[in-house]
């Protein structure tokens, strides 16, 4: 419910919907690269002018909207920002309140070792660890669910030591991706997918076989 999200954020971040409005958080799992992105690029390469992943997600979520012709469905993507430069929604908070992934933050560590350093939080999924992404929010403004019960996210990094290790790796060594394996995972990105996301966005077109002319 939108209320779960709004309840833990300052008003400036609230979603402008009634409390009982139904919302879904959309995640991409490691298999998205082969099952969705590569087929999308093969079929739609002439239309790809921005980020292929963003356009792929947009393509598939537009199909979701088509499945509900009698419902109003609002979609907010993780990359969308307001004129104030704030994101339209806080993806990791949304994932946490929906029960999809646990958002580990500095406040989850009792003996804080970082002093005045800025420490960012990170979501960990109980099955995929850090090998997933939060892609968007689907809101159904005309569907109110007052009796929906909230499910807590799985606290899969439960020890103080592991939480410190997670936040250390994410904040100071995020490039090597070790934080993604803070727990035993069922599936992770392929080597091809790792290479894709490790490549600067402007050079990813070449990795996908898209030339600048095609772009």
TrEMBL record:
GO molecular function terms attached to this record: cobalamin binding; cyanocobalamin reductase (cyanide-eliminating) (NADP+) activity; demethylase activity; FAD binding
Keyword annotations of the record: Cobalamin, Cobalt, Cytoplasm, FAD, Flavoprotein, FMN, NADP, Oxidoreductase
Location relative to the cell: Cytoplasm
Enzyme Commission number: 1.16.1.6, 2.5.1.151
Required cofactor names: FAD; FMN
Superkingdom of source: Eukaryota
GO CC, alphabetical: cytoplasm
InterPro entries given in the database record: MMACHC
Database matches in CDD domains: MMACHC-like
One GO term of the biological process aspect: cobalamin metabolic process
Family of the protein in this entry: Belongs to the MMACHC family.
PANTHER family: CYANOCOBALAMIN REDUCTASE _ ALKYLCOBALAMIN DEALKYLASE, METHYLMALONIC ACIDURIA AND HOMOCYSTINURIA TYPE C PROTEIN
Protein name per its UniProtKB record: Cyanocobalamin reductase / alkylcobalamin dealkylase
Organism: Steatornis caripensis (Oilbird)
Gene: Mmachc
